[in-house]
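In the current project phase, work has continued on tokenised descriptions of protein folds. One protein thus recorded appears below exactly as we store it.

——
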Amino acid sequence: MGLAERVYNNNKIKRNKNRTESPDDKAYRLARMYNNILRNIEMVSDAKTFLQVRNEISAYAHVAGKESVDVARLRTKLDNRLKKVTTELDDSINALNAEIDKIKGDKFEESSEQLQELITQAEHRTLHFLMQMGNNNDGGVGNRRRAGNFVANADRADAIALMKIASLPQYAQCFSSKQKQIILEKSKNPAEIVFERNKEPLLQEKHSELGKAYMKSLNLRNALKKIGNTEKAYYFNEDTEE
């Protein structure tokens, strides 16, 4: 039974003070309230719907009596529904965390033959570039210019060779931070770059779902804590009834 219907019925009773509700009418009204609450319990999925149903049970208890067997039955059903919802939320959070870890852990793999051929090419290119590098007698200006040309025209094997040269102390200053980032990207398999790029929107989607699940769980637990019954099997005290 919704709030509007309760207000309407209360006003109707006040307008008809001289009319006494018959036992049959009261029984019918209680049955309708009870059945509506049962349906609403099955739709509880978050803090908002939990609190709404809790208030409905409190209103029902005022009419049926707090010691009513039906009131106790509704409380038990709401308790069981909450246990199911919280369990499902926890399972969802665990599943999303597992999915995120799996996505992060997925690595692009290429054949060992392809990698070996690439390494061999890179070794030859390393020697080729080193033979063109000077001794930095001009303050490294010439080598910085050469390094810039090498980076601009590098293919994947070149990039791997240049990464090795950039790691050598005598040539480290010949490469800017931006150039080192460029050769790092060029050293990757193009298919790997696409693979990693495609992971980002999927990770963002899963993180968004996880955030919503965490918030839903937090709000529900805060609602339970707010009514002061988190250590009990059900969530209704005499002093919290409305």
Observations:
- The first helix runs from residue 3 to 15.
- The chain has nine helices and no strands.
- Residues 65 and 71 are 8 Å apart (CA to CA).
